[in-house]
Specification:
Length: about 300
């Protein structure tokens, strides 16, 4: 089982270069497989309550919540580490120019020696789309288009692509990613549509705030979509963050085993789950989780 970790998304930590360097080097030394950054370009002070993972439609954030640009933040982490994988959890890909994003992701993958995992989603905040100038209603179609365009640019040589939102002919975009075939794209989201998208075009599936029972249903949908596209569903890697569904779930072996029975091979934990803000607290949590994951069959 792989163990990924998210940092503290709090002012004074995530935006403190000394803390970030120390945290990243510590989690790498403790054997974490990956470190994950999140993305929101902005959060409206009074957004329409459309956040899909809470009953009141509000995201779990405080006045001290800080979300740096994930690729810039991971580039800093890459320079401070040598082996830990660099994941986005997730980038709102439908809000970006896929050509520019393809260049940024490929550059990071190239200079990190092939460590990037691109978690890709379409977000939920209408006000964020309005500020960027992209129609909210187009977000699903744009996500599919943008993933296809980036993959075209990541292939060797000149690329051509003709999509609804993106077009180019015989275009060179260098450097290419270090990973053969391009950077793995991990589809985020917990809906049936997200599961089917993962089956159709994803290298991985990373649902959010989902129980083991609901995950089992989404995995069935993902597998059916993959088989309908003549893809191998067993090649789609499953990632889950138990603690965003139920606090403390990551420390319950029974729950971990129920997720693992669905095919999960990577568990993610947030540094807040350590119960303290010192490096010793994070280190203790990681060691405890490694021990628990060793028990998961």
């Amino acid at each position: 089982m792989k163990l990924g970790i998210q940092p503290l998304f709090s002012r004074g930590y995530i935006d403190n270069p000394q803390w970030v360097r120390e945290f990243a080097q510590m989690v790498e030394a403790e054997g974490c497989e990956s470190i994950w950054a999140v993305e929101h370009v902005l959060v409206a002070e009074d957004y329409e309550p459309k956040y899909p993972y809470s009953q009141d439609g509000r995201m779990p954030a405080t006045d001290d919540t800080v979300m740096p640009d994930p690729l810039e933040w991971l580039a800093y982490v890459a320079g401070a580490t040598s082996t830990i994988r660099l994941g986005t959890s997730v980038m709102v890909v439908s809000q970006h120019s896929p050509v520019i994003l393809a260049k940024r992701v490929a550059t990071l993958d190239n200079l990190s020696a092939g460590r990037v995992l691109l978690g890709a989603g379409m977000g939920w905040q209408k006000e964020e789309y309005e500020a960027i100038g992209i129609p909210y209603e187009e977000r699903a179609k744009r996500l599919d288009d943008h993933i296809a365009a980036m993959r075209a640019l990541w292939q060797p040589g000149a690329a051509s692509y003709e999509g609804e939102f993106t077009r180019f002919r015989r275009a060179l975009c260098d450097p290419k990613p270090a990973q053969a075939g391009g950077v793995p794209v991990i589809i985020g989201g917990s809906s049936t549509a997200a599961a089917c998208r993962a089956g159709r075009i994803g290298d991985g599936f990373y649902p959010y705030a989902i129980s083991p029972e609901d995950l089992a249903s989404r995995v069935e949908e993902m597998r059916a979509a993959a088989q309908a596209c003549d893809r191998n569903p067993n090649a789609i890697e499953l990632t889950v963050w138990p603690g965003c569904w139920q606090p403390g779930a990551a420390f319950d072996v029974d729950i971990l085993e129920r997720y693992a029975a669905c095919g999960v091979t990577r568990f993610v934990v947030n540094a807040y789950e350590a119960g303290g803000f010192e490096m010793a607290d994070f280190r203790r949590m990681i060691r405890t989780l490694h021990g628990l994951l060793d028990q998961v069959g």
